[in-house]
Request: fold
Amino acid sequence: MEAAARLNAVQNPVIPIMGELILQSPGTLSLGQGMVHWGPPPQALQAAREAIDDGDLHAYGPMAGDQALRDAVGRWLQHHHKLDLAGSAVLITTGSNMAFHAIAQVLCDPGDECILPVPYYFNHAMAIQLAGGVPVAVEAGVIPDPERLAAAITPRTRAIVTISPNNPSGAVFPRAVLEAINRLCADRGLLHISDEAYALFAHGDAAVWSPGQGSGSGAHTVTLGSLSKSYGMAGWRIGWAVVPERLLEAIAKVQDTIQICPPRLNQRAAAGALAAGAPWCQTRIQGLGQQRRQVLAALDQANAPWRLLAPPDGAFYALLQLDSPLSGDAAMERLIREHRVALVSGDSFGLRGCCLRLSYGMLQAVDLAEALDRLRHGLLALAGAGPA
Ligand SMILES: Cc1ncc(COP(=O)(O)O)c(C=O)c1O
Reply:
């Protein structure tokens, strides 16, 4: 028995593909997966321990998450991101990827379109396809030009998705751009899905702005967030969605079917993490400034055959374009096999040409220096290479 034909349209997941290549190439240093080098705060682990002793977590919990965590996330969003939550509901999900999946299921009838500015996050495109929708990749600039997004709207368009700070470019979108996209969505009856997994990750002067801050924006805005990056809790799988209340009934159908409830022990750990406070995250995020400087210094070479596609002001990514006839996929494979350094292919983010995403969240000091050394050598070798 073969898998359903509609799965053929869904791209293969690049992270497991890269992981397999790394396994086959022992000693590879990874600038690939989007993770940080720290783990959760002690308060999160303590909350998990106490929750186990409570013995109170064996039953299913509420579909939208335990009320205490929903309230804590609501307070966090109002305090730190100044969101206007009037008319919106906060939902806890098994990672923010699941939040996006649920929204895609709720939005898309077969053939409905969602606009993804390129570069997009591959799991967004995949979730839309799994829902029967069509991801419409729009090349509107690394900082998307709202007018070019507007030109891509059709009668089938349901949503525009933005990610700021951005994966994979590291760009922080200016407030004026996000406001214009949000207004466009309101005017054209679309949903603005704002993925803010990296909301706390700003380096330098770039200020992060959330479209859900606009008064009344909750009626047409979905804000997604996550503990995976800021709190180093990727494996705990806790994220959230702020959604217009009118969508809750439909979302309940998806979430009840897929997860019944988010894992309750992990929700307790998440509440403990939030109690540790934003400064706990900010100290560690500021520490990434050192890695960022190391990356920029290593890539800053006269006449290099590569360039950065955006100033890496946010998240922990830098997006490179290499002068090479290779595809991003081929370059990823050859960097791992021949140079023992892993970056993620730009192909998976909808980019053309030889693009690679570098993540500096995981490696520190000596390992990072070694990885960057391998990368420079590898890029120089690949720049001269013919197609694989
Ligand atoms: C833009 C973006 N959204 C969501 C996620 C996934 O977050 P979570 O672990 O909360 O599912 C990632 C992970 O890399 C991401 O880059």
Observations:
- The chain is about 40% helix and 15% strand.
